[in-house]
Design goal:
The chain is of the alpha/beta class and 435 residues long. It is 56% helix and 9% strand. It has 21 helices and 5 strands. The chain has helices at residues 2-7, 56-70, 87-90, 96-103, 114-122, 127-144, 147-160, 178-187, 189-198, 204-207, 210-231, 240-262, 272-280, 285-309, 312-320, 333-337, 343-353, 356-364, 367-373, 379-389, 396-408, and strands spanning 12-20, 26-36, 39-49, 78-83, 109-112. It has a 5-stranded mixed beta sheet, sandwiched between helices. The model is unreliable at 169-176 and 411-435 (pLDDT under 50). It comes from Felis catus (Cat).
Length: 435
């Protein structure tokens, strides 16, 4: 049914990503979004098992065999391509995205996964804070790397009645994992210290450093905030307006925080764990000055990196089409003229913004469903809006697919299944799945 619909010539957008299992066997997942009836529909298009030594050109060739050769689809109907920014997709030696854009005659819009960009932003950490992160990871690995140590800490935490009894692993492929890892280490810092003393581990010395613990409190806050930035726009059919609004708001928030710290009366209200730690402990002025300096350096670095991955040009293109977000704001001819639409589009927008019936539809429907509903009455504006809203903004569906493959390729489900896939997204959970 899916292939039949796509073969009818309707526009569609794809998201694709590749992952490796423990046997180094790459798997390529492709999901599709298309217009059907009254809204967008998202579905799995194909799952390709590839050779372990496959190159970027081979990857594109296999994709071409499936999409064009087997499914008989036309690339000219592909209006959007979304992937992460990994080298196997966008690198100078693979150029898979470049080839895809070429076969769509450069009429498709490529979106670099917003979540991946947020993860890349979070990697820029000043040396002093990076040392805190590395030492926290060492502590976690010392305990979690031994099943005995992990069980003993769990028993100890259970006996004294703390809220959590387990530490969490930090891993590079879990892009947004730092927040939860550091938060748990800070929460259990006293229990971990006692445990490390009992084990006669030199790592206990790290937790005796008040400055280190204070920096740990800040890191648990800031990475938790970066995690929340993603979760502000959860769910299906997220459009590019929602994501860019969140990013733009967070960029302004970073500037506000920097200004607050630079003021004559600096405040740490935006970092609740750090603020509570400062209030509950005696921290000398020199330590506070060093912490403040490193926080300012980190926030400045975050601001600069956000501007790198989300430049002004990206926001300008959205501002030019802001009428798509709320067409009923533009009630007067003067406001419509400023939008640089063609005369036919201006006339459509004026008629649309004057309709009270359509205003009710706008309030009750999703943005995509609204523009699809009025496509016959206002074809020019609807077509333009759908083409902007159709491309995926993230590769979440691919990562959800990889998490399902992880469950399928574990020994606990069946003796014939024996592989485990990489799970790159920490925010994707799979529960209650049985075969």
């Amino acid at each position: 049914m899916l292939i039949t619909r796509l073969q009818s010539g309707i526009d569609f957008a794809i998201q694709l990503d590749e992952s490796m299992d423990i046997a180094n066997c790459p798997t390529l997942l492709i999901y599709v979004r298309y217009v059907w009836q009254d809204d967008f529909i998202e579905d799995l298009l194909c799952c390709l098992s590839l050779n372990s030594l496959i190159t970027g050109l081979d990857l594109f060739t296999e994709l071409e065999k499936c999409i064009v050769g087997q499914y008989k689809l036309n690339w000219k109907n592909c209006k959007g391509i979304s992937s992460d920014g990994a080298a196997n997709m966008t690198g100078k030696h693979s150029r898979v995205i470049e080839k895809l854009l070429e076969v769509t005659h450069n009429k498709a819009l490529w979106n670099h996964c917003f979540i991946h960009q947020e993860a890349l932003v979070s990697k820029g950490i000043p040396p002093g804070l990076m040392d805190v992160l590395k030492n926290a990871v060492k502590i976690v690995n010392f305990i979690k790397g031994s099943s005995l140590n992990s069980r003993l800490l769990e028993i100890f935490c259970s006996e004294i009645g703390v809220n959590h009894t387990h530490l969490l692993f930090h891993t590079e492929v879990c892009w947004l994992s730092q927040g939860k890892v550091l938060s748990r280490v800070y929460e259990l810092r006293n229990e971990i210290y006692i445990f490390l003393i009992e084990k006669q581990s030199h790592l206990a010395n790290i937790l005796e450093d008040d400055l280190w613990v204070t920096k740990l409190a800040y890191l648990s806050d800031i990475f938790g905030i970066l995690n929340e930035l993603h979760f502000k726009v959860p769910g299906k059919n997220n459009d590019i307006f929602q994501y860019l609004e969140c990013i733009l708001g967070f960029q302004k928030t970073l500037l506000l925080w920097q200004a607050r710290l630079k003021s004559n009366r600096p405040s740490y209200y935006m970092f609740p764990t750090l603020l509570q730690h400062i209030e509950e402990n005696v921290i000398n002025e020199d330590c506070l000055k060093e912490i403040k300096s490193e926080i300012l350096m980190h926030l400045t670095s975050l601001s600069q990196t956000f501007h790198h991955y989300f430049p002004e040009e990206k926001f300008e293109s959205i501002k030019e089409n802001i009428w798509m977000k709320d067409p009923f704001v533009f009630q007067t001819p003067e406001s419509i003229i400023e939008l640089n639409l063609v005369p036919e589009e201006e006339n459509e927008l004026l008629q649309l913004s004057s309709s009270f019936t359509l205003r009710n539809y706008y309030k009750t429907l999703s943005l995509s469903a609204f523009w699809i509903k009025i496509k016959d009455e206002f074809p020019l504006l609807s077509r333009k809006s759908i083409l902007l809203l159709l491309p995926f903004t993230t590769t979440c569906l691919c990562e959800l697919g990889f998490s399902i493959l992880t469950r399928l390729k574990t020994k606990e489900i069946g003796s014939t299944v024996h592989l485990t896939c990489v799970w790159p997204y920490p925010h994707v959970f799979l529960t209650g799945m049985n075969l």
